[in-house]
Amino acid sequence: MKNRYFFAALITLVLTACGGGGGGTTNADPQGIWTGQISTGFKANMVLLENGELFGIYSTGSTIYGAGYGTASVSGNAITISGTDFYFPTNSATKGTFTGTVTTKSAISLTNANSNVALSYVSQYDTAATAVAVTGNWSFIGRSGSYTLLPGSISVNSLGAFTLNQTNCVTSGSIVPRSSGKNVYNVTLTSVGSSCAVGQSSMAGVAYLDTSVTPNRFLSLALTASKGDGLIVIGTRQ
C-alpha cells in the first residue's frame, strides 16, 4: 500500500516551511491550496497552512479513498516530508517519509520508489475567507475511516454554526474564517450518538471554499485530538 501513503506524505510535504537558511539561502514557501494527480490514479486536494500543518484528501471521481495529515521541512526548494496516510477502505494509518521540490505559489513535485505526484498552486488561496461565503444551505457527502456518511444537507448560519444529522448521531459543527487572511476556514465538530462515524468525539481541522466550480463547494477535514481518525465533509451549495 505504499502508493497510498505516498500521497499522505505528499500532503504533509508543504506543511512546515522553515525561515531563511544560512549562507544566503531563501527557503521556498509551501503554504497554499494545492491540487494535482498521483501516478497511482488518485486526485489530491490539500491545504498547507501558514503554521506548517497540512490537511489533505484524495479521491477518484466521486469516491473518497483517504486523507493525510503531517509536517514537512524545506531547505531552499528541497522538501523532506513526514506524514500519516489514512486509507479508508482498510481503515489503516501508515506513516512515511518522502522527498521532492517546491516552487512558491507554483508547483510541487514528489517522488518515491512507487509513485510520482505533480501538484499545482490554486490562486484562490490568496482570497480571504468570509463568513458570508459559507452562510446558507449545502448538500454534503462525507467519509470517516470506517463509515460513509448518508448524503444529506446542512444549513450554516451567519456565525458559522451548523448541525449534521445521521442515523443515531448528531454532529454540531462550526466553520469560521481563519485569521490568516487566506481562503481557509477553521472547522470544529462534536458528535453525540450511538452510531457516529468517528464515535462520540470532538474533532478539529480546516476547510477551503472552491469557487472555481458552480455551484461552489467546500472541502473539509477534521481530526480527533489523537490524529487517529477523522471526518471528511464535502459540501455543495444548494
List strands and helices in order, with pairings.
Blueprint: H1 2-13, E1 32-38, E2 43-48, E3 54-60, E4 63-75, E5 78-87, E6 92-103, E7 107-111, E8 116-122, H2 131-134, E9 136-144, E10 152-156, E11 161-166, E12 169-177, E13 185-192, E14 202-210, E15 217-224, E16 230-237
Antiparallel strand pairs: 1-2, 1-8, 2-3, 3-4, 4-5, 5-6, 6-7, 7-8, 9-10, 9-16, 11-12, 12-13, 13-14, 14-15, 15-16
Describe this structure as you would to a colleague.
This protein is mainly beta. The chain has 2 domains: 2-123, Beta Barrel (Lipocalin); 127-237, Lipocalin (Beta Barrel). It contains 2 helices and 16 strands. Strand 6 and strand 7 (107-111) form a beta hairpin. The chain is globular, with a radius of gyration of 17 Å. Residues 1-22 have low confidence and may be disordered.
Cα distance spanning the termini: 37 Å
What's the alpha carbon Rg, rounded to whole Å? Answer: 17 Å
User: What's the story with the biggest beta sheet?
Assistant: 8 strands, antiparallel, barrel
Number of self-contained structural domains = 2
The CATH architecture of the largest domain can be given as: Beta Barrel
Low-confidence stretches: 1-22
Query: Largest beta sheet: what is the strand line-up?
Result: 1-2-3-4-5-6-7-8
**What overall geometry do the principal axes of the alpha carbons give?**
globular
Structural class: mainly beta
- What helical percentage do the residues reach? under 10%
Give a count of the beta strands, DSSP E runs of length 2 or more: 16
Number of helices: 2
Assign the CATH class of the largest domain.
Mainly Beta
- CATH topology of the largest domain: the name is Lipocalin
Strand content: over 45%
Mean pLDDT, nearest integer? 87
Give the SSE string: HEEEEEEEEHEEEEEEEE
